[in-house]
């Protein structure tokens, strides 16, 4: 049983405070986890509160009700978190307190069992597939100023024979992009997730990505594709009903045509949030247009059309999308919904309906490695967790350890 829960403020990768939870069980099991934090957050996400307030509220409402529960009973702990909060969106105790407690509980339970976290979460009948890491190598949007309008250009080493080769391929693409930019005399700092943030047009970024991926593909000898997180909700002007790319705008129809054309031209493996977070029909139109067939697009080699701000890891919103054929995959961010149980439910609903799941970091991160375990436990097609930088490599290196059975 859970003996005690401690909550504290720690630093995240942007230098902002975030919530860390320690869960200690009567038998000496220990789990520690910290909440990540988004910058291009979806309108329908669970609510992150300022850490001091989130901690105070969680201490008052949630901690006394969770102490005494079995750490291994994740669903019960998560249900009590929800009940103690009393709102739909964790706006009382904060999704940051909730997710930190939920994840720390799972780690404490794994510790009691003496099992790695992915094994505890995935159970005995877990598949033995490993997620392919999507590596953000060029980016802008809300993650860097004066860079690309499209938020992320992501390397996708779909043909990598192993996790470790995939991880290193993404790092190599990141380095090759730096060389490409250097040759073009374009200086580049890094954005919040460690991707290069050059002041180039999106069209030029496509060219740079294409060249870098091809170079590394030749070097490593397996297929590498690339993908995007358009984060289109951030580009959308709802008054004018247009997508704003600096001085240029695109209507909804033009946006759909543009994304479809890029998928075709560059054989993209992945497109996240191509349209505004309220446009389920637009997603459906694009998904149909790019001709995605049937189950688990990752297994068919089809392009994933992935909902992040659209679905916000929420089963109700995912069901709405499934009903109209919006997208074929869902991004899973536990802090968007507040608990691991909710995140698991979203993956399960996705898989039951032939959608892929992509487990993801946030732009503000810590050294916490829970998402690496979650991606393996849920048999996710991809894990999106950056390419370089300590808070990103924490997850990538943990993934390598899991594949090596050395956690
Ligand atoms: P965020 O962005 O973590 O800043 O919200 C990441 C994403 O849009 O996928
Ligand atoms: Zn996104």
UniProtKB/TrEMBL annotation:
Residues 127-406 form the Enolase C-terminal TIM barrel domain. It comes from the Archaea. Keywords: Cytoplasm, Glycolysis, Lyase, Magnesium, Metal-binding, Secreted. It is found in: Cytoplasm; Secreted; Cell surface. It holds the Pfam family Enolase_N. Its EC number is 4.2.1.11. It catalyses: (2R)-2-phosphoglycerate = phosphoenolpyruvate + H2O. The keyword Secreted applies. The keyword DNA damage does not apply. The active site is at 193 (proton donor), 333 (proton acceptor). GO terms for molecular function: magnesium ion binding; phosphopyruvate hydratase activity. Belongs to the enolase family. This is Enolase.
């Amino acid at each position: 049983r859970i003996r005690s829960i401690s909550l504290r403020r720690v630093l995240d990768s942007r230098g902002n405070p975030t919530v860390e939870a320690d869960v200690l069980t009567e038998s000496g099991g220990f789990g520690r986890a910290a909440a990540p934090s988004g910058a291009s957050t979806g309108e329908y996400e669970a609510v992150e509160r300022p850490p001091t307030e989130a901690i105070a509220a969680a201490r008052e409402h949630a901690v006394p009700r969770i102490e005494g529960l079995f750490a291994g009973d994740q669903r019960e702990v998560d249900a009590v978190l929800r009940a103690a909060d009393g709102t739909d969106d964790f706006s009382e105790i904060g999704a940051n307190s909730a997710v930190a407690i939920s994840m720390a509980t799972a780690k404490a339970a794994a510790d009691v069992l003496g099992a790695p976290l992915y094994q505890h979460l995935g159970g005995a009948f877990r598949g033995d597939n490993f997620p392919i890491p999507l590596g953000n190598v060029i980016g802008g949007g809300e993650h860097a100023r004066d860079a690309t309008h499209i938020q992320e250009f992501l390397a996708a080493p779909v043909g990598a024979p192993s996790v470790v080769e995939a991880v290193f391929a993404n790092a190599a693409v990141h380095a090759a992009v730096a060389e490409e930019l250097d040759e073009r005399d374009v200086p580049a700092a890094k954005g919040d997730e460690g991707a290069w943030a050059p002041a180039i047009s999106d069209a030029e970024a496509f060219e740079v990505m294409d060249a870098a991926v091809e170079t590394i593909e030749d070097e490593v000898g397996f297929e590498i594709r690339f993908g995007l997180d358009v984060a289109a909700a951030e580009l959308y002007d709802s008054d004018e009903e247009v997508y704003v790319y600096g001085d240029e705008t695109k209507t909804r129809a033009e946006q759909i045509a543009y994304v479809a054309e890029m998928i075709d031209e560059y054989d993209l493996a992945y497109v996240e949030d191509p349209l505004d977070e309220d446009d389920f029909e637009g997603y459906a139109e694009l998904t149909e247009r790019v001709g995605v067939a049937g189950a688990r697009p990752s297994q068919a080699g089809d392009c994933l059309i992935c909902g992040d701000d659209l679905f916000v890891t929420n089963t109700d919103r995912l069901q709405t999308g499934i009903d109209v054929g919006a997208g074929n995959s869902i991004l899973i961010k536990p802090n968007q919904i507040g608990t691991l149980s909710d995140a698991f439910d979203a993956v399960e609903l996705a898989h039951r309906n032939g959608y892929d799941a992509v487990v993801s970091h946030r732009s503000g991160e810590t050294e916490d490695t829970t998402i690496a375990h979650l991606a393996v436990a849920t048999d996710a097609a991809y894990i999106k967790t950056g390419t370089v930088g300590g808070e990103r490599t924490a997850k990538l290196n943990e993934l390598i350890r899991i594949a090596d059975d050395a956690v």
